[in-house]
Write a structure and sequence with these properties.
The chain contains three helices and no strands. The chain is an all-alpha fold.
């Protein structure tokens, strides 16, 4: 999966939640009360990024972050 495809997946989820919020007049929530956008992203992350749900809360950011060579960084 490319970074562009990943970005499109997140964009689609965000647009869907925003559209739903506009039509309902409030932020959509899951049955447990969590907002739909957060729940959707946290549900997708393990599959997209190869982590377990438990690791999402426990993983720390590793520095320096190495960007894939296919991504141009503005400061370079």
């Amino acid at each position: 999966m490319t970074h562009v495809v990943l970005a499109k997946l997140f964009d689609t989820v965000i647009e869907g939640v925003l559209l739903r919020a506009q039509s309902l007049g409030k932020v959509p929530k899951t049955s447990s009360g969590q907002d739909m956008l957060t729940a959707s992203i946290l549900t997708m992350l393990p599959t997209l990024c190869g982590v377990t749900p438990q690791e999402i809360e426990q993983r720390t950011l590793q520095h320096p972050v190495k960007w894939p060579s296919s991504i141009a960084i503005a400061s370079e």
